[in-house]
Amino acid sequence: MLNFVLRRVVNMMVLLVVVSFVGFWIIQLPPGSILDVQMQRLRAQGGNLPESQIEALRQRYGVDDPFLVQYWKWISRSLQGDFGTSFQTDQSVAERIFNRLGISIGLSLTALLFTWLVSIPIGVYSATHRYTWPDYVITLAQFFGLSIPGFLLALVLLIVASQLWDQPIGGLFSTQFADAPWSIAKVVDFIQHIWIAVIVLAVGATAGLTRVMRANLLDVLNMQYIQTARAKGLTEAVVIWKHAVRNAIHPLVMSLGTLLPALVVGEALIAIILSMPTIGPLYLDALRSQDMYLAGTILVMLSALLLIGNLLADLLLAWVDPRVRLD
Amino acid sequence: MSDSATTQRSAAGAIVTEDDVIRVEDLRLNFYTALGVVRALNGVTFNIPRGKVLGVVGESGCGKSQTGLAIMQLTPAAGRYEAGQVLFRESSEQPAVNLLQYERNSAEMREIRGNNISMIFQEPMTSLNPCYTVGAQIEEAILLHQTKDKAEAQQRAVEILRKVGMPNPERIAVSYPHQLSGGMRQRAMIAMVLSCNPTLLIADEPTTALDVTTEAQILDLMRELQREIGTSIMFITHNLGVVAQMCDEVAVMYLGRIVERATVEDIFYDPKHPYTIMLLRSIPRLGVNRAMRLESIQGSVPDPYSQVTGCPFHERCPSAMPGICDTIMPEEIIVAGSQTHTVRCHLYT
Amino acid sequence: MATVAEQLKQSRAPKKTEDVGSIPQWKLMVRRFRQSKLSVIALFVLLIMYALMIFGDFLAPYPHNELDSNSAFVAPTKIVWGPQGPGVYGITQQLNQELLKWEYTEDPSIIYPIRFFVTGHEYRLFAIIPMNVHLFGLETPPGVTQKVFLWGADKEGRDLFSRVLKGSQVSLTLGFVGVVLSVTIGSLIGTTSGYFGGPIDNLIQRLIELIRSFPDLPLYMALAAALPLDVDILVRFFLITIIIALIGWTGLAREVRGKVLAYASLDYTNAALAVGASHWYIITRHLVPNAMSHIIVVGMLAIPGAIGLETALSFLGLGILPPAVSWGVLLRDAQTIQAVVAYPWLLLPVACLVIAVLSFNLLGDGVRDAVDPYG
Ligand SMILES: Nc1ncnc2c1ncn2[C@@H]1O[C@H](COP(=O)(O)OP(=O)(O)OP(=O)(O)O)[C@@H](O)[C@H]1O
Ligand SMILES: [Mg+2]
């Protein structure tokens, strides 16, 4: 077990190094550099940078260095925890990323929790009431959930909520709470701001997992050990929740690995609509302005999140299902 | 015990002894599927005397498993009981109760399942839940019906595992099913069903999936435990050899009906129904001339969706009498000169 | 050990159609497919959508990029029945000084008639035949530039109906082609990997592991951001298709590899090798047909995702770029709540997208159930 985790972690490290290399290479592909983009922007606004400052930035970003040197500068600095200073805001990159990554992960974990809390019971209900009209309604709702783009749902919910009651639009906090210390009122305000994002993020995944849960449970309910459990005299609820669901839950556990990073980035579109300061818009912005250090750092961090998620999913799976051997 | 009991005829015509554990009368079960109605059981009538082993034999699809499941009301959801009674008598002192009067998942039914009537299934590989230890699965039944004390349940589970001949029962109790062989799993299943000392055990082809040596061991074990605990057994099987070894009495099923019912001796030495005779001829025997071909039963079981007029076996029967067998359904009758031998065939009326 | 015949049965592959005495497998599939009503409806909806796409230029009354400063945010035009058949009222534009918003008033005394099979802008039908006939158009006297906007106009006064039709030519094909490519790559690489094993297999597996270590969407975004901006729309279309294909193949490749591994250990593959069949022969004659139904199902189920991906990239400004249009590009206009509340018809492209994706999901589900009733 410990052996397994160690081996996986080492493998993960190696993968991350390769990922950082390939990722950085992809991100520096477009011609031009952040300097060009920024200077263009400044010129468009009528301003300009003093030559000395341009030269300093040239040095700092190594704009003229060959790729390998650039990579080395980036990775060695990153390993020391120095992610550089963002050109655009002069804020340290680390601060920007971690602030936003924290919000994104929190949001995604909430959405994941929501997904599980909804898709397990609905999937179970749907499977145990097959071919009844609620099952058909659930099935149809799933297809809509899979097919509606998240941002559309975000828009619709925003419109409905703002028409029905005083739904605050955009951001994470109302202005009066932005810098206030945490209090009940601030938490309420926060929930008011993020519930739409959580629902919208979770809908697609919920629809998919409900369908998987239903199909798996139908398979499991045909297994002999379910008859055995019934023949013992257990109530139907125990048969389903203790004996069947546990065997049908694999894909949900595995979803931890793939869904978490997908959710973290999937909110990029939604965050734009809901104007939330999360990692998605930051990444998009970094890509657009060719801030390759920032974009590269985010990409590698998301990869790390994916790999860690996969490892956690495997461990969780081994805990849920004794047949899964960790070796 | 049943030998001394007086015999009589039930309303449905079957011979019954006074002390039957279970008496199934005219049980009819239909499945309503997308493709049509499947008539799985068409008036099954039989009894199991207390402490005896009844073998139920017949071709695949004739309704053996469904009969067993119906007794416990574990029929698949698409099935509906159209008629009939399942009379269960827990002990000779108690009156018989009709189990079909209870709702499928009622508390009464659940109290009987696993406690008074238990069932073992054909596939030892899949009949234990892969996610829980063998011990936990046995304890579950004990905690449900016998004691509320966890430590005691644990102890009893280990005891019962030892009783079914498991080497190192403490270790087996904390093992998962996938860590055991097929034979060991079936022993674990037997331990589970015997943990609550059931009055009736329904064993649905418990050894079909096992190799011959393991099969013999499991059969020995069942026989031994049956003698010790006094459980009555409904033993469903394809294998007439196993019937000879295990059973006191035999019921032969064909297309959802019992066509012949007798003691093991009568079935093997004096079979009456042409179907039983053909079944017996299809067993290979030592010492018989190799050149003589094994007889297989001609034709195949009629489509369960359709209804056959007359005797359902007449199309495959070598001694079918035209005008009678294909028009009139034979009633169950007692074979002349016997107290316990009944048959459904026009040849004996 | 199970016989080859039994294993074949277990692999649930379509049986040869010439099986006598039984209904051919494909007929059974068609029959099972037709049982799921929703999938059949979805198939028809998609057929209609693709037909509209193919005849898009003929159906669109105006060029998708034709600006019209007199028609910014015109609501869908009301069609009325006039003396000369269907027509529209004359419309005048004035600026609402308070709201700083263009407003339009109808003048019921003027009716401009709608004509059919009118000549209009030049286009190539099926991208080949040069034509200038359009299904319908508005007949206006000289000097009047009023247009018929079936689905309203955007902020530049461009006809949304024409833009949605034009956008469908990208949105309905890009995802489809991307999936076809990725499924092809996936099956080829998976087959190779499973069949040859050894170092080739090892290399491919490492590659797959690497690609899967990247989170999907960020990788797509990075690759799309790396595409040159100053290329022809067609080139960009194909580059994005290739990006979709390059990342999407890994899952299928793993599955196909697994199938091939199971298959390669079968007796009759060895038997075929023993009688001198070549690797290629075995792959094309035995392995690929066997995995085909599975591959098709995986592909069908991947199409809605690919369509959504193109839309998302275009929406983020990384996919198809204006002046070219795709549904994703059109969605950019509908991203603020203010716009959507004021001009709800801007959501019509979203409706088309939802219908297409929903239909593909339903169709894929029906096909899966038909091909693989137990899966
Ligand atoms: N869920 C179901 N839906 C429809 N028909 C069913 C269902 N389960 C069983 N049947 C039908 O009930 C009949 C009896 O089945 P049963 O399983 O009792 O046969 P069996 O005698 O146990 O056969 P085997 O020896 O193969 O186990 C069969 O014709 C079968 O088609
Ligand atoms: Mg059976």
What is the spatial order of strands in the main beta sheet of chain C? 1-2-3-4
Identify the overall geometry of chain B.
globular
Order of helices and strands of chain B: EEEEEHEEHEHHHHEHEHEEHHEE
Biggest interface reads:
A-C, 46 and 41 residues
Quaternary: heterotrimer
Q: Could you tell me the mean pLDDT of chain B?
A: 83
Biggest sheet of chain B: strands side by side, in what order? 8-9-10-5-11-12-14-13
Q: What does this protein structure show overall?
A:
- The complex is a heterotrimer of chains A (327), B (349) and C (375).
- Chain A is mainly alpha-helical.
- Chain A contains 13 helices and no strands.
- The longest helix of chain A has 38 residues, at 184-221.
- Chain A starts with a helix and ends in a 7-residue tail after the last helix.
- The relative contact order of chain A is 0.14.
- With 349 residues, chain B is an alpha/beta fold.
- Chain B has a single domain, classed as P-loop containing nucleotide triphosphate hydrolases (Rossmann fold), CATH 3.40.50.300.
- In chain B, the strands form three sheets. Chain B has an eight-stranded mixed β-sheet, with helices on both faces. In chain B, strands 4-3-6-7 form a four-stranded antiparallel β-sheet, covered by helices on one side. Chain B has a two-stranded antiparallel ribbon with strand order 1-2.
- In chain B, a hairpin with a 2-residue loop joins β3 (20-33) and β4 (36-49).
- By secondary structure, chain C is α+β, with helices and mostly antiparallel strands.
- Chain C has a four-stranded antiparallel β-sheet with strand order 1-2-3-4.
- The longest helix of chain C is centred in the middle third of the chain and has 37 residues, at 160-196.
- Adenosine-5'-triphosphate is lined by residues 31, 33, 38, 40, 58, 60-66, 76, 78, 304 of chain B.
